[in-house]
Amino acid sequence: MEIAELYKCFMECGKVTTDSRNCPEGSMFIALKGETFNGNAFAAQALKQGCRYAVIDESEYAGEGTILVDNCLQALQQLANYHRRQLKTPVIGITGTNGKTTTKELISTVLSRKFNTLYTEGNFNNHIGVPLTLLRLTKEHEMAVVEMGANHPGEIKTLVHIAEPDYGIITNVGKAHLQGFGSFEGVIRTKGELYDFLRAKGGATIFIQNENPYLNGIAEGLTCVRYGQTAGLYVSGELISCSPFLSFRWTAEGVSHEVNTHLIGSYNLDNMLAAAAIGRYFGVSDDDISSALASYLPHNNRSQLKETADNKLIVDAYNANPTSMMAALKNFRQVEAPHKMVILGDMKELGEASREEHQKVVDYLKECGFDRVVLVGPEFAAATHSYQTFQHVDEVLADIWMHKPQGYYILIKGSNSMKLSQLPECL
To answer: Residues within the annotated binding site?
Structure first.
């Protein structure tokens, strides 16, 4: 089936699902394959549960209501790109090593003050999530903010050719997914694929953190709207306090605004300034920008402050890499509290650099002088004999129930697979 024909079927449905357990009435089911499942086998079930069509790529599952294509994943991606081209909604593409999800949400919160804005939900930022996001676009949407993630070279290139962004922002580049990228330079090249697409498009605008040498090094030939902590930029900012919530001042055209946020961490200052710069570029009023940033509430275990009957917790357990781990520790070191404790989980996908990067964290911990340090995972355990270590989160939970900390300010940070998000409930 040609993509134009498939698109007509999609327009009859208006919604796409890839999950046979979630089939809105009249939607289109696309049968994707994974390591442990074959979506084709669930096509009949999806049709019974309310889907109008089921897109399959194995003829043995054909029947009434099915649409046979060569490859369902490619069909999903081509359909999303075709839909994006029909609507011509301005798209801002966002990627980066750290902060892209928070920045995406801040940008969307600001733009929503003026525009009907579609944005990536959760972490739907891969080769499946990006097309699903684009297929949620309607004629009513005036802006779209599409997050793009990657852990291997070439992945951003694939995603930008699906989303075809008109504007771009790379939040930063750092040491993450080194096992997949091969090196830090590989990270820079892959994130830079967003810039490459926009440069080839001609006349495209990017929003760039002014003080980042790596981003400036790959931004040649692009129109740059600059934000950062240097005076005189399109949007300039400075930290007021971070004890524990971030308060900052942003300035544009000589006019300053103070904002008290609900985000933990001085490292979120650049994320706030990015949202302010993009909002201002698209004509959101300064007052609306400040109000939107002040009202944003973090979730999904990202820079959240949780107060329990026994302790105060900074929960940043959704992800971790050497760059974000050191930023979190440096911020926590500055927090004023009588008793401080950290619970850190292994940083994943670092390949040959893993032992060295975990050792750097341990060495820095020795400088910090925290009252108590708990390290979780085999990489941290191999890096130190000075601190209490556990192999798995279950062991930490058992220890906490026996020796429950009380009266501590506690930072919890680790890769999502370490499951440290289980800890707040018992602390």
So the answer is: 96-102
